[in-house]
Design the sequence.
């Protein structure tokens, strides 16, 4: 493979994998506390629409990002109130949230469909960006890529090296024991749910302000669902999550690379690659039921009522 083509492929992989990494990281933290939120796609779409609308009408990209994060958190708050406070079924509530977010984002963004703006540009770090091959790959990226890697490092440290992470894992494994130790299970779960919503909104703003700086209905193209599969693929480990996000990112653009090499295959079939990869990964993971059961947070998706404790 030509060195320039390889470099461009890796750069595109970083950009394609970043929204997956952001939204999957939020879902992983949420699931660590025992909350299964299937509303990722809806929250991400709301973030994409709100982020674009905020930036378009105010002229401020950072305001757009802030609005996207806020919208994601508000969607997550709806989920939290229903599933955590009122104890509705988490799976059904999450699915309803995705349907709601998909429809609401399309409705609110109707007048903006096809509109474009000047999104975030790549940041070129002096001297480092001039390093052959690795300079453009590692030191000439947009702020979201750097932020995503920073969030990964901070999240890993918090989960594995702090009492906050210990509390979060205790709540996810056995909320009754956590309550007996004095932890407020509902508060912890609500905080992680809001964090997941914020990350979904941030991932959505990446789609509409960086990846393709415009608004289109359903522009996330199922990335919220892929993120849910990524968390399972990573066995709730942040290191594996990073690897999985970029692997799925590479799969998403592989069809463009194959077309560049002249493969005579329908582009529609090649575009199915990331979704096919998702199915294959889930089948492989499901084949080892014992290992998967041991990795899954014990209280994932299970309602908890402190009054019954």
Sequence:
């Amino acid at each position: 493979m030509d060195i320039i083509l390889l470099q461009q492929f890796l750069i595109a992989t970083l950009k394609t994998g970043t929204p997956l990494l952001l939204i999957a990281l939020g879902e992983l933290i949420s699931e660590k506390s025992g909350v299964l939120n299937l509303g990722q796609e809806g929250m991400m779409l709301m973030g994409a629409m709100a982020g674009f609308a905020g930036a378009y009408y105010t002229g401020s990209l950072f305001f757009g990002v802030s609005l996207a994060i806020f919208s994601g958190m508000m969607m997550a708050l709806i989920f939290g109130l229903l599933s955590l406070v009122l104890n509705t079924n988490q799976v059904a509530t999450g699915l309803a949230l995705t349907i709601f977010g998909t429809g609401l984002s399309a409705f609110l963004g109707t007048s903006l469909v096809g509109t474009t703006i000047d999104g975030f540009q790549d940041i070129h770090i002096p001297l480092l960006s001039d390093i052959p091959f690795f300079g453009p790959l590692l030191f000439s990226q947009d702020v979201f890529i750097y932020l995503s890697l920073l969030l990964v490092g901070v999240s890993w440290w918090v989960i594995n090296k702090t009492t906050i992470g210990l509390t979060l894992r205790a709540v996810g494994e056995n909320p009754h024991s956590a309550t007996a130790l004095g932890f407020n299970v509902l508060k912890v779960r609500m905080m992680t749910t809001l964090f997941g919503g914020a990350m979904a909104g941030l991932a959505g703003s990446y789609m509409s302000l960086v990846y393709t700086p415009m608004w289109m209905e359903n522009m996330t193209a199922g990335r919220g669902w892929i993120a849910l599969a990524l968390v399972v693929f990573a066995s709730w480990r942040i290191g594996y999550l990073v690897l999985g996000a970029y692997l799925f990112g590479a799969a998403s653009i592989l069809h463009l690379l194959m077309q560049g090499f002249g493969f005579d295959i329908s582009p529609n079939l090649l575009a199915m690659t990331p979704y096919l990869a998702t199915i294959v990964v889930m089948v492989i993971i499901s084949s080892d039921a014992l290992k998967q059961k041991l990795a899954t947070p014990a209280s994932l998706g299970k309602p908890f009522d402190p009054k019954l404790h």
